[in-house]
Amino acid sequence: MTQQSPETIHALAYGAYPARCLQVASEIGVADRIDDEPVPVDKLAAACGAAPGALDRVLRLLTSFGVFEERDGGYAHTDASRVLRDDHPMSARPLLRLMGLPMHLDSLTLLQHTVMTGEPAIEVLHSEGVWTYLQEHPDEAEIFNHAMTSKAAADVPAVVGAYDFTPFGVIADIGGGRGHLLRGILDAAPDAEGVLFDQPSVIEALAFPDHPRLALRAGDFFDAVPAADAYVLMHVLHNWDDERTARILATIRKSAAPGATLLVIENVLPDERPTPAALTMDVIMLALTRGRERTEGELSALLDAAGFRSTGMTETSGTMRIAEAKAV
After folding, report:
1. How far is it, in rounded angstroms, from Cα 145 to Cα 134?
2. Strand order through the sheet with 308-315
3. Which of 55, 193, 213, 275 is the most exposed place for a label (fewest CB within 10 A)?
4. Partners of 309 in the beta sheet?
5. What pLDDT digit, counting tens, does each position of 221-277 carry?
6. What are the CA-CA distances from residue 57 to residues 45, 252, 260 (Å)?
7. Are 200 and 220 in contact (CB under 8 A)?
8. Residue 238 among the catalytic residues
9. Which pLDDT band holds residue 30 (cuts at 50, 70, 90)?
10. How far apart are the first and last CA of the chain?
11. Which of 43-52, 81-90, 121-130, 237-246 has the lowest mean pLDDT?
12. b/e map 220-243, b = 16+ CB within 10 Å
C-alpha cells in the first residue's frame, strides 16, 4: 500500500460532506450575496436566513477547497465560488440545487439496494421511476429543468464549435427538450431547417416556434420520429437500458433514408481509462435510471445492430463527445 492510499480512502469516506456543503451554500444563495468585497458572515447569514455560526463552519470548509476565501473579516469570492452565482454565464448553481434534491440524496442513501438488486434506487421511492417521480413532484421538476437548461447553455457552444452541421438540409433534434441545441445548430447552419421532436407535454409548453427555421413535432421516440437528413440525440440514450436504447435507434432507422447521419452527443466513455467524473455520472445513472454511460464499443454495437455504421468520434471542448453514424 502506498503512502497516498489511506489519504485517498479518507478523502472518499468524507467526501459527501464537502459536496453537501456546496449544495447547501448554493441552495441558500450565498454566492449571490457577495460582490467584489468580502462580506462578514453575520451579514451573509442574515441575508440567507442562516445561523451565523453554522454557516461560518460550512464556508470555512469550502474555503479549504478554494471555494470562497476568508479575507478582511469576511468571505470573498474566488474564481470557483463566482461560478455559484446565478448571473455567472457558466453558473453551476442549478446543477448543485439539482444534486441537493431529495430524489438524488435519497437515491444515494439507497445505493446499496441498487448494488444488491441491480434496480434503480429511485424506484424504492417511486415504483414507476424517475420520470414519473418528476411529473408528480413539480417543484423538483422545475429545478431539474432549470439545471438541464443551464447545462445545455454550456454544452451547446462546445458541440456547435466542434462539428460542421452545414451539409444537412433537415436536422431533427430527437428528445430535444426546449430546443437549445437545435437553435444553436440552426444559427451555425443558416441553410438548414430544424425539427424539434419531444413528448407532447414538452412541445405544448413551448406553444410556438421561436426560430424562423424551427418546426415543432410532438410524439414518442419509441413509436415514430420525423424524416430528416441528420438526427441529433443529446443526453438521451444514457437515460435508457440497452433494450430501450435499441428500440429508440430502431425507430430512428425506420425514418432515416440510407446515408442519413445520426449524431449521439453525450459522455461517451473511452474504451480505456474513463475519468472519475465520467464514472461518477455512470453511477448516478445506475441509481436514478435504468440507463448508463456507454463506452465507444458498447455504443457502436447498439448502433450496428440498429442498422447504422459508426463513422467517427468528435471531441468537443467540454465533456461531451459526438459519435457519428450513417444509416446503411
Report:
1. 10
2. 214-218, 193-198, 170-174, 230-234, 261-266, 321-327, 308-315
3. 275
4. 326
5. 999 999 999 999 999 999 999 999 999 999 999 999 999 999 999 999 988 888 888
6. 12, 53, 56
7. no
8. yes
9. very high
10. 52
11. 121-130
12. ebeeebbebbbbbbbbbbbbbebe
pLDDT value at position 1? Answer: 47
| Nearest partner of 322 among 235, 207, 260, judged by Cα | 235
Residue from 126, 180, 235, 238 carrying the catalytic annotation:
238
List, for residues 174-219, the tens digit of each pLDDT value.
999 889 999 999 999 999 999 999 999 888 888 677 788 999 999 9
